[in-house]
Write a structure and sequence with these properties.
The complex is a heterodimer of chains A (205) and B (631). Chain A has helices at residues 11-21, 27-30, 46-53, 68-74, 96-107, 128-141; strands at 34-39, 62-66, 76-77, 88-92, 114-120, 145-150, 161-168, 184-192, 198-203. With 205 residues, chain A is α/β, with parallel strands linked by helices. Chain B has 631 residues and is of the alpha+beta class. Chain B contains 18 helices and 20 strands. Classes of the chains: A alpha/beta (205), B alpha+beta (631).
């Protein structure tokens, strides 16, 4: 007696939806789709924090896929530093191809809150076709997908929004003038399908 | 395939729901009824025969059949309706010959339920009782043998359970018996008696589980078996002894097979449960008791052999009734009057009736647990099982559906033509009976099978099965999140291994890397910890990476550090936050850590720590590491 899941959206549905929301500001940004975040340096936490600030923990668990090099060079996710409401399903794989495969599997499961993949460098598997598949699947099942790229170049990709993140000096700390305060990031949107590219100084809410 | 050494289980009529089982206490009114019946039977036996037997006999037989049939046991597994029909035929054939309602021999003369000649002989059954006098210690010994820590047999060993006033001896080995250690005594007393006594704790639940498994295992000798007390089994071997070359040979075989499992066994075969129980515990070695020598063989046994509880045995002893024979010689009516209100466990008369077969005691054999396995026999050896899988999965899932079960683990086995066997198994995180889902789990795994020159038999069996709760989801068609997620976890686990799909399971510790616990996502949910009050990084480097740091000795904050061949200048810092080693877990020489949250000239924020302080006597200069990356 299991009720059926809502059917995935077809290309027509997606186009119609996009036409409706085209004029309105902000709505296109909230649509679940594939987004890419590049990290300026390998050991910079800004890209991760920027992505985490846009997750909605109430929607469901987050599938977190990372390849071996990302885990070795940039460490693993630390639950003590995250929002306690966020529920993470961590998948450790060794190759970038497996990251893409696991992300694609996860994007088919509409109960997930988001799917996050960490890819190191520029793997040949992550080409335009692979990113297009991820983007279409993400939109059809309404699950946001995030690719975190470290030590990689912004090659051809079908990601709907591509960001480059770096840390800035933090705001002054009111309690202790020597201590770092609220973190600030420099967010550079260099490729956007529905919005205008630009530069921002961002901070977490 | 697996159970070729097992006899097929024959269907037999299930005990009727309206029938009260024999173990329930017999009410006083029942006993009164039985007395009335006994008197009536006596009067009928003494009265002259009726003139027309047919008129009085047929309805009486009908009644008798109905009441006996419910607790009668059909050893050949004849379905009830067929048995009733055939009996009706024999009845109609027999009505031509005049006969009475009185029993054919003297056994039934004062029986509470008058048996008619058309009933089956209650002593025609063959019951085998197995008693394991040292089940607990045998299992313990076997476990020790397996792990290679078995003590020599001359060391006295006692297994204890927790009593209300400290541990109590639960089982002993022979060496301990000889020193006077006895079961039920307190361990401290027995230590005083035997100072070299070695005490371990007994695994009572494990013993019961083992006995249950053994109950299914002994069905290799006969189709029906049941548990009998905490350390006994009861088998209905009616009609199955000839397969093993007679009863004596069968008992020898059972004893031999059980001794290879490391179990000491007392066993006996008798026509009734009570007699088999008594002879196995109190009789000789491997006793076989026939129906006609039942009274004679059981007469010398003590009254405790009647499965009576402690007080009643003592009472009978005080009355001077020490053996079963002495009890049987007491007039029935006086015994019935004396124990009118006694329960079954304290009523010697009812127990005696059970032993002599005057009162039915059906063996309630639990069904075999369902086994879900499908196989496909191929006409020709093939190299690829894939085309056969969908049908087999569908059939397996239909079987699971019929029983309300779901598979947690499914195994595919191929039997190669050269006699080799290869298998793959997949696991699911939630019990599943969805053929498509099970098939998907085998994706990419079938290549690992080594088909050799081909195989001609494939089996697919659900090796671990759970009951499935049917869940009604929202009527308007919302998503069924749990099942979707479980399917995703299954697919990922099947590809990357279950140990690589994990959920957080934080442990209660101050040391950051210890707090980060992860458990397999297929496991049940763990506990959650409250959020940290101190700032914690988003990422943790595993293991922490050594850095070269410029700082004010001995306890100053870092001023500049070199990590991965890059120099970082510390612009701002917060700390130290001191995290002491956990003395209950760490080695004695472990040094404390002073954590600093720093920001470098590029705005990147890291988590550094200094392990130890110069001159703390736990090694040389302190070591600096970077462990975390902040937002």
């Amino acid at each position: 007696m299991r009720s059926a899941l809502p059917p995935p959206k077809s290309a027509t549905d997606l186009l119609m939806q996009r036409a409706e929301t085209a004029g309105r500001k902000g709505e296109a940004d909230a649509q679940p789709t594939l987004r890419e975040v590049f990290s300026e340096t390998v050991t910079d936490g800004a890209a991760l924090a920027f992505m985490l600030a846009q997750l909605n923990p109430a929607k469901g668990p987050v599938l977190w896929v990372s390849d071996r090099l990302s885990r070795r060079e940039a460490g693993v996710i630390c639950m003590a530093g995250l929002d306690p409401k966020i529920d993470i399903l961590r998948v450790d794989v060794s190759r970038s191809v497996d990251v893409l495969w696991a992300m694609e599997q996860g994007l088919g499961c509409a109960t997930l809150g988001a799917v996050v993949g960490e890819v190191w460098g520029d793997p040949p598997a992550l080409d335009f076709t692979a990113s297009k598949r991820l983007a279409l699947r993400s939109e059809a099942h309404a699950v946001p997908a995030w690719l975190i790229r470290r030590a990689g170049h912004a090659n051809l990709s079908a990601a709907r929004a591509r960001w480059r993140l770096s840390s800035l000096a933090s705001l002054p700390n009111a309690d202790d003038m020597h201590a770092p305060g609220q973190p600030l990031w420099h967010a550079h949107l260099f490729r956007s399908r529905w919005g205008t590219p630009g530069d921002w100084v961002a901070r977490a809410r | 395939m697996r159970g070729e050494d097992k006899l097929p289980v024959l269907p037999f009529p299930a005990p009727n729901a309206s029938h009260t089982p024999p173990d329930t206490p017999i009410k006083a009114t029942d006993t009164a009824d039985m007395l009335a019946h006994a008197i009536e039977a006596l009067q009928r036996a003494m009265a002259p025969k009726p003139a027309d037997p047919r008129a009085g006999d047929v309805p009486a037989q009908g009644d008798g059949r109905d009441c006996v049939e419910e607790d009668s046991f059909t050893p050949v597994g004849e379905p009830r309706w067929r048995g009733a029909a055939s009996r009706r035929q024999t009845d109609s054939a027999k009505t031509s010959t005049p006969k009475t309602g009185t029993p054919k021999d003297g056994r039934m003369d004062v029986a509470s339920r008058a048996f008619t000649p058309t009933d089956k002989d209650p002593l025609a059954r063959r019951i085998t009782a197995l008693h394991f006098p040292r089940l607990t210690i045998n299992r313990w010994q076997r476990h020790m043998d397996r792990t290679g820590q078995a003590p020599p047999p001359e060391i006295p060993i006692a297994l204890a359970v927790e009593g209300s006033h400290g541990p109590v001896v639960h089982a002993t080995n022979r060496a301990a018996d000889q020193t006077g250690v006895h079961i039920g005594a307190r361990v401290v007393d027995m230590r005083a008696l035997c100072p070299e006594l070695q005490v371990e704790f007994a695994d009572v639940g494990g013993d019961q589980a083992a006995l249950k498994r053994l109950m299914l295992w002994v069905r290799r000798w006969c189709p029906w078996s049941a548990l009998d007390g905490p350390n006994g089994l009861i088998l209905d071997t009616t009609g199955s002894d000839h397969l093993w070359g007679g009863e004596a040979a069968m008992l020898r075989e059972i004893e031999g097979k059980l001794s290879t499992l490391g179990l000491e066994t007392d066993l006996a075969t008798a026509p009734t449960h009570g007699a088999a129980w008594a002879l196995s515990r109190f009789g000789g070695v491997r006793e076989v008791c026939l129906a006609d020598e039942l009274a004679q063989r059981t007469a010398p046994l003590p009254t405790a052999a009647l499965r009576l509880q402690g007080d009643t045995v003592l009472l009978l002893k005080r009355l001077g009734l020490k053996t079963v024979g002495a009890l049987a010689d007491v007039p029935r009516l006086s015994l019935a009057r004396r124990f009118q209100r006694a329960e079954l466990g304290q009523n010697p008369l009812l127990r005696l009736d059970q032993m002599m077969g005057r009162m039915g005691e059906p063996l309630q054999s639990p069904d075999d647990p369902p086994r879900f396995s499908v196989q496909s026999n191929l006409a020709e050896p093939v190299l690829d099982p894939e085309p056969h899988m969908p049908d087999m999965a569908k059939e397996l899932c239909a079987g699971l559906h019929a029983q309300g079960c779901g598979a947690r683990r499914v195994t595919l086995t191929i039997y190669r033509t050269d006699g080799d066997v290869d298998r793959i198994s997949v696991a699911t995180s939630q019990a599943s009976r969805d053929p498509a889902h099970i098939l998907r789990l085998f994706d990419g795994k079938l290549e690992r099978l080594n088909p050799g020159f081909g195989f001609d038999l494939i089996t697919l069996d659900a090796s671990v099965v759970e009951h499935v709760q049917r869940v009604q989801t929202r009527i308007e068609g919302g998503t069924d999140g749990g099942a979707e997620l479980a399917h995703l976890i299954d697919r990922l686990s099947a590809k990357f291994g279950a140990e690589n799909i994990r959920r957080p399971a934080p442990r209660d510790s101050h040391v950051p890397e210890r707090r980060e616990g992860w458990q397999a996502a297929m496991a049940p949910d763990g506990a959650s910890l409250p959020a940290h009050t101190r700032p914690r990084p988003l990422r943790l480097l595993q293991p922490p990476e050594d850095i070269r740091v410029l700082y004010a000795v001995p306890e100053g904050p870092p001023a500049q550090f070199m990590w991965r061949r890059l120099t970082h200048k510390v612009v701002r810092f917060e700390g130290p936050e001191r995290i002491a080693p956990e003395w209950w877990r760490d080695r004695p020489g472990t040094r404390l850590r002073d954590y600093y949250r720093i920001e470098d000239q590029n705005g990147c924020r890291y988590w550094l720590f200094r392990e130890g302080i110069a001159g703390d006597g736990r090694g040389g200069a302190p070591r600096w590491c970077v462990q975390g990356i902040f937002a």
